[in-house]
Amino acid sequence: YSFVLSSASAGEDLTNDTVWFEVTTMGFLSDKDRPIALKQIMVEGENNAVAGKHYIAFDDPSYMSKCYVPANQNKTMLPIVLLRDPSLKEENVVLKFAFTENDYFKPGYTGLTERSITITDQLSKPSNWSTSYFGTYGPVKHQLMIEWTQKAWDENYIDELLNGDKGYISYLSRWFREKLAEENSKRQSQ
Fold it and tell me: Are 25 and 74 a contacting pair, CB within 8 Å?
């Protein structure tokens, strides 16, 4: 998740944002709302997110009131509220979290109970960046692509392109090469 990409549409004053994860439970339904409990997992060798600085803590009462499976349902969208700390302009942090046991739920199948978010306030290479279409990744190139097209060029947008009209993505690939050649020529002359 990048605040830079999100603030392009929401404005520079964006101080927090929510990432949603779908949660599906197993077992019997209940006629009452059932709270979900989460915990952070520290990742060795990574710059781990800090509760209250990079995200709303999972035990914060305002967060806990939004973290539940509604009555008579086995599915919900779980909010993870990210905070735009100034340190994110210089570094990326990782928030890995998992379900933890409470009075209503036990963690499910191994591998299906953990999620991870990399949080930044910089441009970073989308995981689905296609070098065959877009060439070598660089943050300056990424910024120019955003400026030239007024599109986010995040994972969602790139997925849309890669799963869409191959002729259009080939056209964009050529168009970017031409625009980058013009831009590089202009910068070299300066």
Answer: yes
What pLDDT score was predicted for residue 130?
A: 83
- What the block records as the tokens of 128 is 């689905």
74, two tokens: 């086995």
In terms of Cβ atoms closer than 10 Å to its own Cβ (0-12, 13-18, 19+), residue 181 is exposed
Q: Global pTM?
A: 0.78
Beta bridge partners of 38: 99
In this structure, what DSSP letter does residue 2 have?
B
Cβ pair 141, 157 in contact under 8 A? no
Question: 33 pLDDT band (50/70/90 cuts)?
Answer: very high
Dihedral of alpha carbons 168, 123, 57, 17, sign? negative
The rounded Cα 24 to chain-centroid distance in angstroms is 20
